[in-house]
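Bug #77: duplicate submission created two jobs. Keeping one. Sequence:
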Amino acid sequence: MPEVAPLAGLREPTSEGYEALAQLVPENGVAAVFLDEDYAPQPGWTKIAGASLLQMVWMGRGELASSEAVSGPDIVELGVRDSAEMIALTGLTKPGPFGPRTHELGTYLGIRVDGKLVAMSGERMKVPGYTEVSAVCTHPEHTGHGHAARLMSEVMRGIRERGEIPMLHVRGDNERAITLYERLGFETRWSGFFAVLRKGEVFSV
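Kept job's structure:
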C-alpha cells in the first residue's frame, strides 16, 4: 500500500523474484527492497535511489535522554492532522520512504518550534519481539539541540514498555546518525543495501 509504505520483500533477488514483485506493483509504482548484495539491474525496473544499509538493534544499554521535564520544546504526539507537515519534513530530510498514512503504523512523536514541526520520530516495521524506530529527522535549521535523541528515547520507551526490542535501519554513509544511535545503545546486526525501484519499461543502469 504505497500511501503507507512502499517496502517490499523478495525471497530471492532473482529474475523470477522481480517478475513476481512486478505483479504486485502498478506501472510507474515504486517498491523499496532490502538486499544482501548491491542491486543488479533487472528488466522492467529502474533504480531511482539506493545506498548501503545497516540494521541496528538496541542492546539494552546506552545513554537515553531523560523522560523527565527538560528545558526545551514539549514533545507532542502526531496524527492524521499532522500528516502534511510530516511528509514535508521527511521530504526535506530524506530519512526514508514516508507516505500520507505511514503514521498509522505506530506512535509518532514530534517537536514544534513557533508552531512549526521541526523534528519527529516514530514506529514503522514490526516483527515478533521487535519494533523499528523510523522517520528520525530534524529540520536543518534546528539541528544540534538534541531533538532526535529526546524523540527516539521516548519512542524507545514505548516499545520497551510493550516488552519489545527497538531496532532501526540507517544508511551506511550517515556517520552522524550512526554515532547517535550507538550512543543510545544500538549495535549493528546486519549490513547490506537498499534499492528504491520504479516499475517501468526502462532498463536499470
